[in-house]
Amino acid sequence: MRHRIIIHFGELTLKGQNRREFVKKLRQNVRRKLQAMGYGPDNGWDVVAIHDRMFVEVPAQHSDDIEQVLQAIAEIPGIAWLTHVHWFSAKEYDIFSPQPELDFLDQLIEKLGQESYRDGASFAVRVKRADKRFAIGSKALEQRLATVLLKNTPWKKVNLKHADQFFYVEISSRGMAVFTNRIKGAGGLPVSSTGRVLTLLSGGFDSPVAAWLMAKRGCNIDLIHFTANHVRANDLESYKVSRIARRLSEIAGKVRLIMVPYTHFDLALMDKGLDYDLMLFRRFMAKVASRVADELHAQALVTGDNLGQVASQTLENIVSMTKSIEYPILRPLLTYDKDEIIALSQKLDLFEVCKEPYKDCCALISNNPKTRTYHDRLQAVEERFFPDYDELIQQTLDERQQITYLFGQRQAEKPRAQAVETTASSEPGDA
Q: Between vectors from CA 13 to CA 8 and to CA 18, what angle results, nearest 5°?
């Protein structure tokens, strides 16, 4: 018997001629996640894609690590569900003989029954016989295995339709797979299959969830954060937004966090007494982010905006920010309410770090922000009061800092010119 992790695809099953590329991306992401955890090909772990699923071959010496690996892989976008399978190869077990010897199966079902028993719970056995060379019919084998459980384990209640615990046996031409619980995956599409986006990351709940939603739709995600002051290089990794970026990387793979100070804009705004300070600042962030997006070859910006949640996120203000740049700005949380966002944050293990006290940059700019602004008026204010806008942006970018994670592991930073060149010439997932 071998141990395997079987991975079933989500939306990938609906893809046509380009399905192979989506599967290739998912396999690559699973392999990189395993390598980051110390389970690479050198240790005997292999990831194999077949017709309608993928499986991870687990070395016998690592069988105790399967539960940890299952939970980690389940976070990777593109997976519908996965499970730990006990695999009996048709080459090693004579399952297609006229009278197959199934003592090994009886013993395994009894063992799984003992391990999974819950007081008062019900069970059912499900057999899928894809290869009809197997001599025993599905119903007959279900009855046989149910009898083993009733006689030799504490399980006493059978519920064929709504059981608390299912025992699955699937028989194909390759062999027999036996498993119990299915773990729900993240769904969506594999990261690196649909493009690259740059998310404006704050220290709150919304923007990290927005970034995750884009990763779930197959995007590579990079992050930009505007800091109130310069962060010392030695403090970068302990910084709150860095820990948010690291957690997102554990799910989405390679994530770059670019941190830029907004002090130059703050000084330029000082003593001008403008009524539109918050929206001018949001437009400034969009303009800086669009310059970074150019360098990273991102195709869109992403924000955590939620319609009507705060003064800066009225429809008029959202339009004013959108018109300030040529890049599209995606807002995946636009129709979510706060409870839904918090629930997703908790699901993603981001809640605790996101709730830590933090001075959000927008809160520092304005105490009484305008709820209705208009692009033409704001553009006129910018032209009048910020005649050297391009220089202001460049001064800000000159003081940027970057930290990069790959599946939660910090990576060495390349010189910026080299990094930009690499981004332009490499595959999306390798940038």
A: 120
